[in-house]
Design goal:
The chain has about 180 residues and is of the alpha+beta class. It has a domain of about 120 residues: 2-Layer Sandwich (Alpha-Beta Plaits). The chain contains 5 helices and 6 strands. The protein starts with a strand and ends in a 6-residue tail after the last strand.
């Protein structure tokens, strides 16, 4: 039997199975082939950073659980690519808008509901939570073009009486490996 130009001893004829050293060689060969395929997909490049920036970056990525700088940099690049996709109207985007507001402010709940009903094509779901006697948290999930999600989110967040609004957006990342 041949593997990349090397002959593999099939083992003693009476066992019907390959020699263990042949199996080890096959495993090493398969592992090297796997590394070559991964290497063909990945490109190595150098990055120059100021020393103090790197000294702050390394502890942060360790704290976040990254095993290497490469993994952290890949995620930073993906995050930026996803953020850029939001700007393109055709990209499927999902937004999660969190609003904190005082429910005792006159007509605020009605105004928030009205805005959501005006954009039923974007609003997928809304959850209302009573935080305390005065404050509520509303979490609204939106799906559609990123620019429209931002517009509706800004409209909801800037409604008189809303204390805090935070939009988190993402895409399916289908164009990002």
């Amino acid at each position: 039997m041949s593997c990349s130009g090397f002959e593999i001893n099939p083992g003693p004829p009476w066992t019907g199975s390959p020699d263990p050293s042949a199996l080890i060689f096959r495993g090493i060969h398969d592992s090297i082939d796997g590394m070559r395929r991964q290497r063909d997909r990945a490109i190595r490049f150098g990055v120059s950073l100021e020393k103090n920036l790197l000294q702050r970056f390394d502890p942060l990525i360790r704290k976040l659980g990254y095993k290497s700088r490469s993994e952290a940099i890949r995620d930073l690049i993906r995050d930026r690519l996803v953020a850029e996709e939001w700007l393109v109207g055709e990209t499927k985007t999902i937004g999660v808008l969190s609003l904190v507001y005082n429910h005792e402010i006159r007509e605020l709940s009605e105004a928030l509901n009205r805005i959501q009903h005006e954009h039923l094509d974007l609003v997928v779901s809304a959850t209302h939570i009573h935080v305390d006697h005065h404050n509520c948290l509303e979490v609204i999930i939106l799906k559609g073009p990123g620019n429209l999600i931002k517009t509706v989110s800004n409209q909801l967040s800037s409604t008189r009486g809303v204390k805090h609004g935070k939009l988190t957006m993402t895409t399916t990342g289908s164009d990002i490996d």
